[in-house]
Amino acid sequence: MMHDFLAELLQCPVCHGILEWHNIERRREQIEEAEAHCTVCGIVYPVHHGIGFFLTTNLPRQDYWEQSSSGISQYFTEHPEVERELMAVPLESLHPADQFLRSLVLEDRGQYAEARAIAELAIPALYTPEYRTGWQSQMDYVLERLARVEGPIVDLASGRCYLAEKMAQQLSQPVVVTDFSPRVLRRDQEQFQLWGLDDRISLLALDARRTPFKDGAVQTMTSNLGLVNIEQPGSLWEELRRIVRGILLSVSHFYPEKDSQNGAAIRDLGLGDLLFERPALLRFVEAGWQVEIVNCYEGRALPTPPGTIMDGRIDGLPITETVLKWCVLVAS
């Protein structure tokens, strides 16, 4: 599930050297297995089971997808009674947060259809109507804009592929799904295969702070709340400016800077440049972008409630009630 056309767009993410492709196995117009050798520094980047792996080793990153999955599995091994309490009782008896956790466990076990049905049941009880409306309206706006563009669309920090799946369903352009977590990409791959959309997408494991794309290789880039999940972003904005020659459409939400409690938590997490509107726009401008926000919508957001079976909340933010400004950040 890596389309042939990508080979012409990629270079070594470490030294920007030219790649030579070897041992290529194809399925129609998709590369299933291959090795991309950098002609300058000698690093070899594999394509394995249709996923291209272009991660660098010199950037710190925390794969929370891997940690969460392995952590739950280990916890269930140590506490089988908790697994029974979560997985073996009638669904309607569970708190919505525990229902959502059950959907994640089923998803990790490859039971995607059942997992999705349970998640869709739980989500209305976890997020305010304004939160859901704000998010959905931004994705709808992006899809409408994309219907008028040509060529591949690169989705950055795709995660669970909420937007990428809609693009694959509704648009004719090929979609490039990216994330630094191999585990979430394998999950995405299996789900796209289940929904019959695997011929519509390509999968690349990469770090958004040092991508394998050549200068100006990307005409259209999207992100669905993905930028905020990039830890220690550093020169992220400059890297994206290097590779995007057209437009970036980023589904975003911003917190009020005067929100003292959430603001303090955001600053403690080092996310002020991503979750406050003024500094977020400034970082784009400083990196040479022209930027605007469109399709704005303000709505109430509450902390996601904790479950009763396992500690913790689904989302770390907000920590107290606030009003989010939803928008699409358009950078060119």
Task: Sum up the structure in keywords.
Rossmann fold; alpha/beta; single chain; 2 domains
Q: What does the model show?
A:
With 332 residues, the protein is α/β, with parallel strands linked by helices. The protein folds into 2 domains: 2-53, no CATH class; 129-331, 3-Layer(aba) Sandwich (Rossmann fold), CATH 3.40.50.150. It is 37% helix and 24% strand. The protein has 11 helices and 12 strands. Strands 1, 2, 3, 4, 5, 6, 7, 8, 9, 10, 11 and 12 form a 12-stranded mixed sheet that branches. The two termini are 29 Å apart. The model has no long low-confidence stretch (mean pLDDT 94).
What topology emerges from the helices and strands here?
Layout: E1 2-3, E2 19-27, E3 30-38, E4 44-48, E5 51-53, H1 64-78, H2 80-87, H3 96-108, H4 112-126, H5 129-146, E6 153-156, H6 162-170, E7 175-179, H7 182-194, E8 201-205, E9 218-224, H8 236-243, E10 244-254, H9 260-268, H10 272-275, H11 277-286, E11 291-301, E12 322-331
Helix pairs in contact: 1-2, 3-4
In short:
The protein is α/β, with parallel strands linked by helices.
What's the number of extended β-strand segments? 12
Number of domains: 2
CATH fold title of the largest domain: Rossmann fold
Distance between the termini: 29 Å
Indicate the overall shape.
Answer: globular
